[in-house]
Write a structure and sequence with these properties.
Blueprint (H helix, E strand, L loop, with lengths): L12 E10 L6 H13 L4 E8 L4 E8 L2 H9 L1 H14 E11 L8
Antiparallel strand pairs: 1-3, 1-4, 2-3
Helix pairs in contact: 1-3
């Protein structure tokens, strides 16, 4: 997930937007975030992701998938499910998830 912004195919495809406010401290967050980034790249239908977090702990991650079934399968992944539980228990003040179908997309590169 090192290409910024993520390289995506021609639409249509789907995106999952995860906006979150972190609590202070790490308590295993960094390791878990790295593990999720590694796992999702092996998820069938995963196309890429863009992610950022500010100094106050507010972050947005946008993950791109080929179809809704790929998103459902990622949601059901046992390790992802466990990590979501840890997020609610230890790492996030709050979060919101938005799923959308991308109908149009373009990019510009210098």
């Amino acid at each position: 997930m090192s290409t910024r912004p993520a390289e995506t195919p021609e639409p249509p495809y789907y995106m999952v937007v995860f906006a979150s406010q972190r609590l202070e401290g790490d308590d295993g967050y960094g390791e878990a975030a790295e593990r999720m980034a590694e796992l999702v790249t092996r998820q069938p239908g995963f196309l890429g992701a863009d992610s950022t977090r500010d100094a106050n702990g507010f972050g947005i991650t946008v993950a791109y998938f080929s179809d809704e079934e790929s998103i459902r399968q990622w949601y059901r992944h046992p390790e992802h499910a466990e990590t979501r539980g840890n997020g609610r228990d230890k790492w996030y003040q709050h979060y919101a998830v938005h799923v959308a179908k991308v109908e149009r997309a373009y990019r510009w590169d210098k």
